[in-house]
Amino acid sequence: MTAPTDMISLEQAQELILSRVAKLDTETVPLLDAMGRVAAVDLASDMNVSPFAHAAMDGFAMHREDLLEASDENPVELDVIAEVPAGGVFEGAIGHGQCVRIMTGAALPADADAVEKYEVVGIVSGDGKTGSRVSFSSCPKERANIRETGEEAKAGEVVVSAGERIGDAGVGFLASCGVLEVPVYRRPRVAIIPIGSELVEPPAIPGPGHIRNSNGYAIAACVRNAGGIADMHPIVPDTLEALSAAVTKAVADHDFVITTGGASNGDYDFIKPVVEELGELLMTTVNMRPGKAQTFGLVEGVPVFGLPGNPAAAYMGFQLIIRKGLRAMQGYSAFEHPHVWAHISQGRKKKDSRRIFLRATLTRGDDGQLTVTPASNQSSGLFGVIQKSNCVAIMPEGFEPIATGDLIECILLDVPEEVVL
Ligand SMILES: Nc1nc2c(c(=O)[nH]1)N[C@H]1C(S)=C(S)[C@@H](COP(=O)(O)OP(=O)(O)OC[C@H]3O[C@@H](n4cnc5c(N)ncnc54)[C@H](O)[C@@H]3O)O[C@H]1N2
Ligand code: MOO
Q: Which residue ranges does the record assign to the MoaB/Mog domain (predicted)?
């Protein structure tokens, strides 16, 4: 049995958070606001899509049977008896030896069974419109250039299943299916509480010994990116009472609470005792660098996550652990960021046995090979390095060094989990 104070693996931390969060309730949003969100129920089309058989090309609709003998040597001529634009309907009948000039999207005349595009049809007389005579030097395939009734969806058919993420094209698909209001899982309301008596709010110029609160902004950005609603709270000084009061207040009206700072073992690090005192402490330390000090627990049933104070450590804790929890609450089923393997540009020793996440840049050479170059400054106090990086390269647990050119796994944190590479 793992005690909350034991150091656990990143995978254990991820499993723990996923086992302790639940899908939120649902809300019905206008179609466009459902973009990127997860359908909470099966969504069915209210009609056939397409609603009627129509031409997929500008051309001529005819009885294919009339053209069975058509060839280059023996072209078959037909009379153009009508024109039908998109939006129009040809009510008449096409007799043998006749055809109808038709535009892309126009309803297929009832007795036509193929459409031939303009480009391969010759004009014998006239301008190709009604009253002209046109010639065909081949026979189109059955139902050629016809989009059929209900080809994409039948009336009543489920077009997006419960649990499916709605993409941009899905928004268009649902529009064609008449689904303009979509039940989706609610976005989690996330309180972000920066802890630290040394912090001042930007843009204030910090006095001696003080620094600006940058974590609050970064984590709010991360929350938004993960689909949550970020509620940035005021800075809380390093006292047990102030932090206890802030967490108690935040859990009352949020779905998830994130603190940054005060997560280690210093004299003024209070998130662990506060979670323990107010609720259930489930985890304090994860085998990763940056970001060893990661506190997680439940207070009044609400997940409370204490990220470390160092910016890169807080960022990694969010991306690699919290983000999964926030996504699970919104019904997403993909949790792993895509990864690639790349040759490291320079060998590295490993002095710390933790799994190390190097902030790094991936490039593709002319030979198509990926190379990863870790940033020269790997201090966990820096956001700027992450801004300039495009991946994190992983050095596994243990002390095994890596040699120049070795293949190393890189996670693309900016690429959504749904992408498969
Ligand atoms: N004796 C030890 N000391 C430390 C250890 C250790 O293992 N033994 N681990 C270090 C590591 S690694 C980290 S990460 C930090 C985590 O500690 P805390 O979560 O208690 O972080 P703080 O001490 O509160 O702050 C660390 C650092 O980050 C700055 N900070 C804090 N909040 C913000 C914010 N909102 N915006 C920008 N910067 C922030 C803070 O000023 C400190 O410089 O512990 C190490 N120590
Ligand atoms: O938990 Mo700390 O990052 O390794 O800066």
A: 191-328
Distance (Å) from CA 305 to ligand 1 centroid: 15
Residue nearest to atom 3 of ligand 2 (CA): 290
63 and 140 together in one domain: yes
pLDDT for position 266: 87
Same domain as 249, residue 319: yes
Return the number of other C-beta atoms located less than 10 Å from residue 11's C-beta: 10
Q: Is the pTM of this model over 0.90?
A: yes
Question: CB under 8 Å to 337, separation ≥6 — which residues?
Answer: 319, 411, 412, 413, 415, 416, 417
Cis peptide before 203 (omega within 30 of 0): yes
Question: DSSP character for 330?
Answer: T
Q: Indicate the pLDDT class of residue 198, thresholds 50, 70 and 90.
A: very high
ipTM of the complex: 0.96
Co-location of 112 and 252 in the same domain: no
The reply to whether 177 and 36 lie within a common domain is: yes
Around ligand 2, the residues with Cβ closer than 6 Å are 289-293, 308, 310, 313, 380
Q: Give the phi and the psi of residue 412 in degrees, each rounded to 5.
A: -100, 95
CA 200 to chain centre: 34
